[in-house]
Amino acid sequence: MLQRSGTRRWRAGIVSRAIVSVSVGLLVLTRVVPMDPRVYLGLTAVAVAHFFFIWKTSVRAGVWLDWFNLVFDLSMVLAILQLGGRSESPLAILVYLWLFAMVTMNARYGELRLLALLAALGWGVLALGGLGGPGYGAYLGVHTMGVLLFVVTSLTLMGERRQSLLDPLTQVLHRGAGLERLAEWVRRREPFDLAFIDLKGFKRINDAYGHAGGDEVLQALARRLLAGVRPQDLVIRYGGDEFLVAGPAGSLAGRIRRVFEEPIATSMGRVRLAGDHGVVTWRPHEGSSLETLLARADAAMYRMKYTESREDPPETGRPATDRA
């Protein structure tokens, strides 16, 4: 759902809200919006208190502050619509501005359920904000179409954004996008596991089946990694035959081992793979940077590579396969 925005975005949001507050105030003073200026002054005082609250709590706040801001913004817009003309208020555009800002900030996550939630909340504020005003039926019909059009447009935006984050071959997050998401996980200050995976003997697969065969193995491995984690977890192609997987603390080690238990089905037959992997846990009290975390995971992978005894794929000839 909502992701932690971080201190810089929260504080930038103060500026955006201040601009909206001043703009609406001018519309009230010039009578474009039929609202008692004293009432709007009271709403502005509440908004200023909210700005101060964000500034003071943004340094160490979690994702709860994003949810608090969401509820506050919608409550303020609802009050403005009800007090500023209801179905005749020109300020219904504030709902669409809010929807645009929320989808833009969260488009990189590509979550359809988040888009559905935001659209439902926006439509609800429009419906309640215009309630009791003249021509309410026509008002509600127009804004229902407006929200639906917004959803369709946002689906296109989120789909294009999502595709730009994926590695073209494996369809998991590419390195740049994946490291950006990992940095966000670190800023959330919640424990998580990170696995560093290095496919063993991949050069022999390329030598035996060609690069097309190697690509097929990487695609099949990526699909298996995706199938072994939750939708909100991260699977990243770090480079070549190296992958990163991030998920809840204490959950990844067993899942990664199971990825290599069964052969992978390919057009060349069922190819048996082995992978060196290291799993480490990030904890808030340690204060480790993302670079330190990656170094720890890489070191754990190398410890497995050189210290653990297990059966490896053949060192010579074609990689082990089971023909279907």
Automatic annotation (TrEMBL):
Keywords: Membrane, Transmembrane, Transmembrane helix. This is GGDEF domain-containing protein. It holds the Pfam family GGDEF. InterPro entries: Diguanylate_Cyclase, GGDEF_dom, Nucleotide_cyclase, Rev_trsase/Diguanyl_cyclase. One of its GO terms (molecular function) is diguanylate cyclase activity. It comes from Oceanithermus desulfurans NBRC 100063. The keyword Plastid does not apply. The chain crosses the membrane at residues 12-33, 39-55, 67-85, 91-107, 114-132, 138-158.
